Each structure stands twice: as C-alpha cells, then as structure tokens.
Amino acid sequence: MNDVVVPHGFEVPGWDTWERGLRPEVDAPLLYGPAFVELPVNSRGHDFFVGDIHGELDMLFHLLGAVGFSSGDRLIAPGDLIDRGSYSCEVLELAYEQNFLFSTIGNHEEELIHLDPDQGDVCNSSILGGEKHWWFGLPPELRHRYRRIARTLPVALEVPLKNGTRVGVIHAQVPQQDWNVAKALSPSYGDRNPNKLSNTRVALSARAIAYGVIRDQRRSPLPGQVHHIDLVVTGHSCIVPGEVWRYGNQIGLESLAFSMYGAMTIFDPLRGRYWQLVNPRSPAGGNWPEVREIEPPVDRRPLLE
C-alpha cells in the first residue's frame, strides 16, 4: 500500500507503518456485522461523503488532500469500495480500520461474500467478468480475510451532523423510501434471486429512482422524499458520467471515478459544498488535474412530479 502517492500535506493515520498483515479479530470465524450502524456526532472535525471508490485510492487521496481533509475528519462511503481500480485490498483495510473511512456494503462487496475463497483461480460468477482479478490472485488466507471484512460492513449508516441534520447512507436506494425500513434490514445477503426484490436487494441494487424516474422520466409510485431522515446519500447509479444528482432529499454521488469519462465526487453537507476530481486517464484529465468545486445538483423532483 505504501506505493500509493500521498499528496503533500495530507496525512493518513498509521500510513508509514501500515502493513497488509493478518489480524486475529478478523481472521477468526465471523458472521455478519450489524445491518444498521449509527455513528456518533463528529465533534473533532468535518464529515465528508464520497461516491463509489472502486479501488481508486490514489484519486481519493488527491481529492481529500485538495479539500483540506485533516485529522478528526471522517469520510463516509456508500459501498462499492472494491473492483475496477488498482487498490481494492487497501481500501477494504482502511474501511476495516475505521480511523477515518466508514462505509456501507455495496453490491460488489456482496458479490465477494458469495465467492468461494478456496477457488482463487476460477471466477465462479458470470456477472463478475474480470473485476475480481485482484481477489483471485491473492493467497487463500487473504481471500478469506477480505471476504470476512466485507461481511462486517453495514447495509445502512446514519450520520448525525453537528447542526442536528441526520444523514442516511445506503448503497443503492432506501427500501420503500422509508429510513425506518432501512434501519430494520437484515444483515444476511443470502437471497440472490433477481426476481425477488427484497428490502435488502433494493438497498444494494435498485435503480428505480435514478434510472426510472430521473433518467427515463417515469412517474414513480414511491414518494420523492425518503421519510424519517433528513438527507440520504447513495452511490451505485450514475445518470451521466462525471455528474451527481438530487431527487428530493436523496443525493447520488456516484460519478464513475473508475471511468475514463468519469470523476470522483466528495460532498460536505454541513457547508453544502461539492468537489470533483476528473479521472486522470480522461481526455480532460492529464497528470492529476486540478480538483474543482462544482455547483450543488439541482433537485429533479419538482421537474418530474
């Protein structure tokens, strides 16, 4: 992990001594972690929210360094920490350490849970393609480790801000547009029937709001606002590469950081500010393009109701 370039002035807790070693508490037999976690108010710094990281740790560090992320700040992610980028193992380790990165589970971590750690040379899921190449190339003990780490991630996170605002974080979509339903979700991901939209399946994979309502402009039977929470941050669904979206009190931060035409987006809800880093492989990127502050997304709900 120490081959990742850390921006000047940005310090990662324990970075110089960090090693990808085995820790007894995660390498012992482990069931699922809690499905819902509420973080305490961050009295030491700011809470920032980011879209799907997908192993793009170098992009993440450049973005955090540019926005002044510092000791006491927290970064909250909606899952899909892994695959596509070069640093899946490292991002999982940082989420497990919980020094500054806290995340829900995404559908890519759920896929990892269902893989056989003892079949490292065979991709046993047709939907994975080459995205799990990093995992299949690991020794068995590390494959077991990262599968277990994935099982510790909650389905839903609640983050209370200093001003009293409560932010809910979930990977794809809040089931039934009701945060109380999200708080009662099961931590088991055993039902993988694509024709059965359980509440957990909606949380990890649904795109009804992002694609059906916003992109395709179809009316939804679901309410525009998610009830029993002030604000919801999701990943998973991108309408246009490099853009974020808002629908009522729901904000979609997935802007395809891994894509040649995408960007990584970070959001500070307390100050209402958004920043982006264009993928350096993009034609508009170059060698670490400048991080830019972007305008808050326009609420699409009044336009579509």
Report on this structure.
The chain is an alpha/beta fold and 305 residues long. The protein has one domain: Metallo-dependent phosphatases (Purple Acid Phosphatase, chain A, domain 2), CATH 3.60.21. The chain contains 10 helices and 12 strands. The chain has a 6-stranded mixed β-sheet. A 6-stranded mixed β-sheet has the order 4-3-2-10-11-12. Helix 3 crosses helix 6. The longest helix has 13 residues, at 140-152. It is globular.
Helix-strand layout with pairing:
Elements (H helix, E strand, L loop, with lengths): L23 H4 L8 E3 L8 E4 L6 H10 L7 E4 L10 H10 L3 E3 L3 H7 L19 H4 L3 H13 L3 E5 L5 E5 L8 H5 L15 H7 L2 H8 L15 E4 L10 E3 L2 E3 L10 E6 L4 E6 L13 E3 L6 H4 L1
Parallel strand pairs: 1-5, 2-3, 3-4, 6-7, 7-9
Antiparallel strand pairs: 2-10, 5-6, 8-9, 10-11, 11-12
Helix pairs in contact: 3-6, 4-6
GO molecular function: phosphatase activity
InterPro entries: Ap4A_hydrolase, Calcineurin-like_PHP, Metallo-depent_PP-like
Protein name: Calcineurin-like phosphoesterase domain-containing protein
Gyration radius (Cα, Å) is 18 Å
CATH class: Alpha Beta
CATH topology: Purple Acid Phosphatase, chain A, domain 2
The main sheet comes to: 6 strands, mixed
CATH architecture: 4-Layer Sandwich
Helical residues, percent: 10-25%
**Quaternary organisation of the protein chains:** single chain
Enumerate the spans where pLDDT stays under 50 for 5 or more consecutive residues. 17-24, 123-127
Global geometry? globular
Element order: H for helix, E for strand: HEEHEHEHHHEEHHHEEEEEEH
Widest β-sheet, arrangement of strands: 1-5-6-7-9-8
- Count of discrete domains: 1
Ends distance: 48 Å
CATH superfamily: Metallo-dependent phosphatases
Q: Output the structural class.
A: alpha/beta
Query: What is the number of helices?
Result: 10
* Whole-number mean pLDDT: 82
How many strands in all?
12
What is the strand content?
Answer: 15-25%
Protein name: Calcineurin-like phosphoesterase domain-containing protein
Pfam families: Metallophos
Domain Calcineurin-like phosphoesterase: 49-238
InterPro entries: Ap4A_hydrolase, Calcineurin-like_PHP, Metallo-depent_PP-like
